[in-house]
What we know:
The chain is an alpha/beta fold. It is about 45% helix and about 15% strand. The chain has 6 helices and 4 strands; from the N terminus they run E-H-E-H-E-H-E-H-H-H.
Amino acid sequence: xxxxxxxxxxxxxxxxxxxxxxxxxxxxxxxxxxxxxxxxxxxxxxxxxxxxxxxxxxxxxxxxxxxxxxxxxxxxxxxxxxxxxxxxxxxxxxxxxxxxxxxxxxxxxxxxxxxxxxxxxxxxxxxxxxxxxxxxxxxxxxxxxxxxxxxxxxxxxxxxxxxxxxxxxxxxx
Length: 173
């Protein structure tokens, strides 16, 4: 992985901010621990986890000016010379409530974000917590080794390294 050239976007949900801010801090710490300079990290806030996939899509569409924004055909892979980010980390928190609302929010955010990663062929790391309680969410977003934001950033960096290491000779085996 070429750390010096990397630019990473963090998309952070404002809903459950006490938790998502902890995830954000964990993700930033992982990036800094891996020699990604602070100026190579951009943060974008969205109202909630539901809005994360649309924000991702807006960023990708605005970044690929050579391609049409609205199309029914499959978009081409992102050219990292056009896209200002090498990867995206999505951070949010959906806590189980008394109704099934959380199921729908989490399914939408997670499924659509994954689809965008495949559709645009860019690593998008999923740091969206789905917990049964605020206590569980706090335990996963604290300033310790259990921080899932840190893990999401680490997963993104591993995918970027994997991408750099894939060669045609590997694919011909």
